[in-house]
Amino acid sequence: MSLSSSLMASSSSFTSRNYSYNVFASFHGPDVRKTLLSHIREQFTLSGITMFDDQVIVRSATIAPSLTEAIKESRISIVILSKNYASSSWCLNELVEILECKKAMGQMVMTIFYGVDPSDVRKQSGEFGISFNETCASKTDEERQKWSKALNEVGNIAGEDFLRWSNEAKMIKKIARDVSNKLNATPSRDFDGMVGLEAHLREMESLLDFDDDGVKVVAISGPAGIGKTTIARAIHSLHSYRFQLTCFVDNLRGSYPNGFDEYGLKLRLQEEFLSNILKQDGIRICHLGVIEERLHDQRVLIILDDVNNIKQLEALAGDISWFGRGSRVVVTTENKELLQQHGINNTYHVEFPSRRDAHEILCRYAFKQSYPHAGFEELALQVTDLCGNLPLGLRVVGSSLRGKKEDEWEDVMNRLESVLDRDIEEVLRVGYESLDENEQTLFLHIAVFLNYEDGNIVKTMFDDGDLDVKHGLKVLENRSLIELYDKKETIKMHRLLQQMGIKAIHKQEPWKRRILIDAPEICDVLEHAKGTRVISGISFDTSDIDEVSISPRAFRRMPKLRFLRVYKSKEAGNDVVHIPEDMEFPRRLRLLHWEAYPNKCLHPSFHPEYLVKLDMQDSQLEYLWQGTQPLTNLKEIDLQRSFHLKELPDLSNATNLKGLYLSYCQSLVELPPSCSRLHKLKDLWMDHCTNLQVIPAHMNLESLKRVSMKGCSRLRHIPFMSKNNIRQMDISETAVEDVATSTSLRTRPLSYSMIGCRKLKEITHLPKYVTELDLRKSSIKKIPDCIKSFRLLLELKICGCRKLTSLPELPSQLMLLSANDCESLEEVASPLHNPNARMSFTNCFKLRHQAIIQQWFCLGSAFLPGRQVPPEFDHRARGSSLTLAHSASTRFKVCLVLLPNHQIREDRSSQLLCRRVVNGDVANSDDKSFYFDLSRCRAEHLFIFPSGLFEEDEEEGLPEVHREIVFEFSSKYNDFDVVECGAKFSTDENSYESESDQAATTIASFMGAMNADPTPIIASLMEYESMKAKYSNERAEIQLVIVNGDNQQTCCRTISSLVSSVYSRYL
Q1: What is the pLDDT of residue 924?
Q2: What is the pLDDT of residues 490-517, one digit of tens each?
Q3: Confidence band of 464 (pLDDT split at 50, 70, 90)
Q4: How far is CA 9 from CA 21, 194, 237, 888, 1064, in A?
Q5: Is 374 exposed, middle or buried (0-12, 13-18, 19+ CB in 10 A)?
Q6: Is 385 in the same domain as 275?
Q7: What is the tens place of the pLDDT at every residue in 279-329?
Q8: Which of 234, 390, 515, 821 has the lowest CB atom count within 10 Å?
């Protein structure tokens, strides 16, 4: 059993502080001062841990003020519970004070049970209880209850049990190490000084009520720019330690466009969400129940930021049953109606800050302190009032005033006064007007055309002009007008600032406008060729027009036009855009974004020499242009859903192309040979190009990372890709017959999906570094023997491979084997060696499952056909209840016989409910649930799982003596029956490889596969105790971290940090 603690401070003390002592120890002197405590002090001194010295305190019936202060000034309190601890009212009062500090200040509390049973402490029983009763004999009932409550609480804090250690010195070293780790886990200072945040957090924490074991959904509502996201980020930063998994999903607005495939969009949202929260790139799912299946037993913290569509909530937080007990979901939105629709009643509406707080916000950005410089006091107050107390406005205006003189402040105030009576968003215009002309031009182009665009693409789009884009982006970031994220590569502008930019354009005189955004004005310009030489961009929303006929000479008078965007923001309307066959595009066009382009090709005079991004989704194009064109500036081509596209042009000169998106180009037959020379290409998406048959023979593209050819049903051959660094390869539903040497010589980890390849009968070679292999519903007859050497393979999915008769020896570190509906499968060559591995053989009725049960008994869980509990399980009972008596230290396996009935439904997963009652204590029973897809189950099946999957901590709080445990199993939806139960105990410690050893083995395997020395990582890992069963997800995460590490040093550093965080969570 390990030390645990109440970790970080709540909002009442979220600002970092300095402590006088690292540790305060509460103990009964005669029991431990000359023995255990003296050794702890010595070890702490060697470890550099400062501990309060109580020698100067004179003990009495009440706690001295100096001792109370010492408790408050200590980062951690360690309570040493010995046999006579409860005989001292001093100790008991000290304990009450410690727990008060834990509750009020978030102080960490650790426990050591020195010769006493934790149960005796909680219940005040045994010799410990006798001492307690004697102490309480002359005390009031109020004091007795207060002490009893404190002992119950501290007894429930898992800690070191002295009696379980054969070596005291090792125990003390571990305690010192645990204390050091907790001291090193300093709370985040990211939100120090955030004005008013503490009050917001108090309100949010009251609604979230982290002590409640139920699942809660809490919303943060308010206008744009009010600080909703900041509050949500603070909650995530300060309270993530409480949860097993956390996820911050930002930029949800716009992730659910109207008029598209609703089911497909929900799938995509869930895939991205699961990849985020499980820290596994490229997760693919085939139904909408996966979130519930993966997270129903996990305590999770999920932040859904800037939600603007009810479908987003339905996809990501459809029901609280999707998440484990104690989970919290926080939703930020401007739309209160959306919250009502989803039944979210716990809402915190963020109000505008007080005048005092607003003034401080302005000062922090204008003066970098909480008050104004001398001489600016009155000016700061006036500007605060003029900003209307909008936090985003205060931040932007304050940044623009930084370093300005008093007369410049006066000018700003004069401008602000003119917009006070208008929409509060106009306040943001002040920051815009503080820019020079070139910076304003860049700002407006980002607002209209380039938000969320790659910064490098933006720089290329302007590299032929007189704008210093690099400097301009830096100025905009410093003025808080944009953010640069994803390693400073992606530009993000707040939506409110975008709106302000659009209003700024509307305010310009028509003949001075560089950017046209008003649809009637654009119609007039394009129909009558009224453009001017100053126009650099057109953003044409055709949603609200009926018909427009563009003049052949429309763009001739716009030689500076660089950005052309034609789109439809609303599905309603019958807009028609007529384009003459001889219409000429501007020669120096940088962005051509024209949705549903109606012509079959671009005009022969079209010159793509300067083009950086071509986005013509949903077009009627059959081809783009003829011949070889200069394309060195081109970085992205998106022609998705251009159903009539028959051919691509020669792309030989597109040497800087990074993204080629051709999904649903159903008339496309081949990729031109020139694609094999796109050496900077990273993404190649060609899903459902149903007529695609030819890909260049040698796609040796070293930059290629993601390839998807799903649904290319006529594609028979995948080219040889020996030099690439592909991370994802999806050739599902293609006509490939053999993977042969495709990608076999690659040297980077790969997720390989071949779902539904009906003509795939064999794989003569496989990429050695595959991490996930998905062959579901293929016609494969044999898995190659070489798979046993795939040291990075974590998941093998072969469901529905009906011609597969046997499986060869599999790699030892495999985490998941999914083989449902393999009707011909008879043999699996050898057992897996991973104690947390999961395997499923639904409807594999030819499988010799008895041999599997005998050989694979040490596996984590298994699902396979069977009508009765195998004889290996020597504790059996008919029906759905099983009673066991065993020692707390004994591990065991559970086996259930499940029989589906007529209430099985295909639109939901079945749910097995398990309840564990220990020693008849129904009030403190534990519940667990498991999900299965039994909709295709045609007979009885066995579900085998280890006790550790049910119990979060098998030893915590349980007596060493034998105990009675009753397991009660049931179906949540009554769609299957539990026919029989069984269990088998294991007293042979060697029959279960310790999880720390398994983790070390896995790490060694991965590091060896990457040609790196695993010794440093394993050395640090082996310092810890054995790992919990719940660690399985984190181990997969660690494996992926190692796989994706740039070098050994990075791997070691990352793994050490990850291991520490995981252990601190579960130990």
Answers
A1: 61
A2: 898 877 688 788 888 988 888 889 999 9
A3: confident
A4: 16, 16, 11, 34, 16
A5: exposed
A6: no
A7: 888 888 888 889 999 999 888 999 999 888 888 999 999 999 999 999 999
A8: 821
Tell me how far apart the alpha carbons of residues 949 and 931 are, in angstroms, rounded to a whole number: 13
| Rama region for 565: left / alpha / beta (φ>0; ψ in -120 to 50; rest) | beta
What is the span of the domain harbouring residue 491?
437-507
Residue type, 1011: N
Query: How many residues in the chain?
Result: 1067
Answer with the residue of higher pLDDT: 66 or 430: 66
Contact 369, 355 (CB under 8 A): no
Collapsed DSSP state (helix, strand, coil) of residue 106: coil
Confidence of residue 156 (pLDDT cuts 50, 70, 90): confident
| Residue labelled with tokens 């980002």 | 446
Does 336 lie in the same domain as 362? no
Would residue 537 count as lying in a domain?
no
Bridge partner list, 592: 564, 614
Domain's final residue, options 507, 540, 564: 507
DSSP 1056: H
> pTM of this prediction?
0.61
CA–CA separation, 1055 and 639 (whole Å)? 41
- 554 found inside a domain: no
Q: Note the pLDDT of residue 724.
A: 64
- The Cα 512–Cα 525 span in angstroms is 14
Our measurement of the distance from residue 686's CA atom to the centroid of its chain's CA atoms, rounded to an integer in Å, reads 27
Q: Are residues 371 and 500 located together in one domain of the fold?
A: no
Same domain, 305 and 376: no
| CATH number of the domain to which 872 belongs | 2.60.120
Domain boundary pick from 936, 959, 991: 991
Residue 1026: predicted pLDDT:
33
Same-domain status, 1054 and 1020: yes
Task: Please give the structure tokens belonging to residue 153.
Answer: 């609480």
Which residue do the tokens 């044409």 mark? 540
CATH number at residue 42: 3.40.50.10140
- Beta strand segments in 854-975, E: 861-865, 875-878, 881-886, 891-900, 910-918, 926-932, 941-946, 963-971
Output the six-digit token pair for 615: 């986005």
Q: What single letter denotes the amino acid at residue 943?
A: F
Average predicted confidence (pLDDT) for the chain: 81
Quick one: pLDDT band at residue 359, thresholds 50, 70, 90?
A: very high
DSSP states along 600-656: SS--TT--GGG--EEE-TT---S-S-SSB---TT--EEE-TT-TT-----B-TT-TT
How far apart are the C-alpha atoms of 189 and 8, rounded to whole Å?
A: 12
281 and 160 housed in the same domain = no
Residues 158 and 216 in one domain: no
Q: Which backbone phi and psi does 351 adopt, to 5 degrees?
A: -85, 160
**How large is the average pLDDT for residues 902-917?**
81
Res 61: pLDDT: 45
Assess contact for 334 and 222: CB atoms under 8 A.
yes
What is the distance between the alpha carbons of residues 470 and 477, in angstroms, rounded to a whole number?
11
Which residue is catalytic, options 42, 73, 94, 964?
94
Range in 188-202, 672-686, 947-961 the model is least confident about: 947-961
Domain count, the chain: 6
CATH classification at residue 330: 3.40.50.300
Positive or negative torsion for Cα 419, 425, 427, 432: negative
The helix (run of H) or strand (run of E) holding residue 380 is helix 377-386
Shared domain check, 488 and 416: no
In a domain, 410, yes or no: yes
**Helix, strand, or coil here: 363?**
helix
Q: Is 94 a catalytic residue?
A: yes
Sign of the alpha-carbon torsion through 148, 212, 928, 1037? negative
SS3 assignment, position 334:
coil
Q: Is residue 1004 part of a domain?
A: yes
What separation in angstroms does the CA of 182 have from each of 22, 75, 190, 193, 1000? 10, 9, 19, 24, 23
Alpha-carbon span 23 to 877, nearest angstrom: 51
